Each structure stands twice: as C-alpha cells, then as structure tokens.
Amino acid sequence: MDPQEAQKLAAELEVEMMADMYNRMTSSCHKKCISTRYDTGDLEKGEAVCIDRCVAKYLDIHEQIGKKLTEMSQTDEEAMSKMSQKPGYSCKCFAKMKHILRFPVYANYFVCKKC
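^ Mitochondrial import inner membrane translocase subunit, sequence as received from the core. Prediction below:
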C-alpha cells in the first residue's frame, strides 16, 4: 500500500470513527436528557442544561481516552524498538510479543522470563 492510499484510508477511518462517536453521543444524551413525552416543540431549560453537560462530559472522556491510548501506543512502540535493537533477541518470546502487540492493551503485561 502506497503512502497516499494509506493516508486516504486513515482519513476515511477517522471520519467514520467521528461519525460513530457523534451518533453514540447523540443517542446517549437524548435518552438521558429528553423526556419521552413531547409536550412542547422546544427544549425545556432543564433538558438544554442536561444536554450541554452530557455532551461536555462525553467529549471530555473521549479526549482523555484518546490521550491514554496514544500514550500506550507510544510506550508499545518504544518497547518494540528496544526489543528489536537487542542483539540476539530472536527467541520465541519475541515472536509472541509481536503477536500480542497487535492488541496494544495487553502489550504492557508481557514479560519475557527467558531473556
């Protein structure tokens, strides 16, 4: 895959992820804040305040999770870089580490007992 194709794919994926987040946020905040009885055509003050807070919390948490995932990804990349630089580090554990790193959440828990 050439770099332009990869960049285009990454941009499409980012748009898809943002649309998914928006849809989940809208659905979640609507269920939480909007009454199932529609007495008026406009939002009531309490509903508007609830939606503002709900959206702010949702976006704040989304940002915190993004930062943590970025941090974990960088840590995993550094660990892989260190492992690949070690001379003779070609044991079975390294192959397992490569497999585990496809799932970065678990990579920090892997420790080679032999090396």
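Residues 45-85 form the longest helix (41 residues).
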